[in-house]
TrEMBL record:
Keywords: Membrane, Oxidoreductase, Transmembrane, Transmembrane helix. SUPFAM superfamilies: NAD(P)-binding Rossmann-fold domains. It comes from the Eukaryota. Gene3D superfamilies: NAD(P)-binding Rossmann-like Domain (3.40.50.720). The keyword S-adenosyl-L-methionine does not apply. The gene is LOC113060382. InterPro entries: NAD(P)-bd_dom_sf, Sc_DH/Rdtase_CS, SDR_fam. GO terms for molecular function: oxidoreductase activity. It holds the Pfam family adh_short. This is D-beta-hydroxybutyrate dehydrogenase, mitochondrial-like isoform X2. It comes from Carassius auratus. The chain crosses the membrane at residues 283-302.
Length: 315
């Protein structure tokens, strides 16, 4: 741990000293990440999970009934309702195996897209009520059971928690808040031997079907006259085409997410974060949190969609 702290301190100092030599800084960041990855892989291992219960929010109930074993118990749990959470806790306590509740996997989530000016405060609230407050609502009542077993808390976030994406403001707000909550919880729970991990999936749109498809007319019909004077209908069509393409692209199954969850649940020293992107994207997303803001913003300024957007807006 002292070595990691020292290395990170060196990186922070190096950025201040080498801000004019950005490629040198990138090299230091990459070397550090590869070194940390090597250290982690030497500590992998599995622990005994027999007789332990795991609560998972969000998976499809029908598929669990059809494909799950007789040890799987399905219960109704709307994470936006306190009464559902209370009933779920009573159900879990009544059906605990001998070693108790070992983990809670906060997997429930929703997604939608749209520019901030197209949205309302209610849109942001609805997103946060599931993705952020839903996880908080589930976490707090079950913490005493997790502490008793010195277990695990898992949170399914997204790369959009740290990577700012056009048209994904409400979703990013909810996931960034979720990670802040999980980070604070990890520090608090360490004293009790409880480990907290965050899963950061990339584009699993085709596998999860989480991103809603919209038609240009759906979006246009919700605009008032003032918005129609700013946003070109051609841009709406382009945005819909782009985000609908995300629904049919990316990873075709959730095996990477499931494997990350299994590791976070069973490894003696799980990662605090599991970044799940393609190998082509891995380099960028590993260094993205360390990059200066003007660099990450320039990714959008250089994209063809951003340029076309600016040309289409009625400025």
């Amino acid at each position: 741990m002292k070595q990691v702290f020292f290395s990170m301190t060196v990186l922070l100092i190096s950025y201040n000293c080498l801000s004019e030599h950005i490629y040198t800084y990138f090299g230091l960041v990459i070397c550090f990440m590869l070194w940390a990855k090597t250290i982690f892989h030497t500590e992998n291992g599995l622990s005994d999970g027999f007789g332990r219960a795991v609560l998972i929010t969000g998976p499809g109930a029908q598929s669990l009934v059809e494909e799950g074993s007789d040890r799987v118990k399905v219960l109704k749990l709307d994470v936006t309702k306190d009464e559902d959470v209370c009933l779920a806790k009573n159900f879990v306590q009544a059906n605990l195996p001998e070693k108790g509740l070992y983990a809670v996997v906060n997997n429930a989530g929703i997604s939608d897209w749209g520019e901030t000016e197209w949205s309302t405060a209610k849109d942001f609230q609805n997103m946060a009520d599931v993705n952020l407050f839903g996880a908080i609502r589930v976490t707090i009542p079950f913490l005493s059971l997790i502490r008793a077993s010195k277990g695990r808390m898992l949170y399914v976030s997204s790369i959009l928690s740290f990577f700012n994406c056009l048209n994904m403001g409400a979703y990013s707000v909810s996931k960034r808040g979720l990670e802040a909550f999980a980070d604070c919880l990890r520090v608090e729970m360490a004293s009790f031997g409880v480990k907290v991990s965050i899963i950061q999936p990339g584009n699993f749109g085709i596998a999860t079907k989480i991103l809603h498809k919209k038609t240009p007319q759906d979006v246009w019909d919700e605009f008032d006259d003032a918005r129609k004077l700013t946003f070109n209908q051609k841009y709406i069509e382009m945005a819909c085409e782009y985000f609908n393409s995300l629904c049919t692209s990316g990873f075709k199954d959730c095996s990477m997410v499931i494997n990350a969850m299994l590791h976070a649940l069973t490894a003696p020293k799980p990662q605090t974060r599991y970044l799940l992107v393609s190998w082509r994207e891995m380099f960028f997303f590993y260094i993205c949190p360390f990059l200066p803001t003007f660099i990450t913003d320039s990714v959008f300024h250089a994209s063809s969609m951003y340029r076309k957007r600016k040309e289409m807006l009625y400025l």
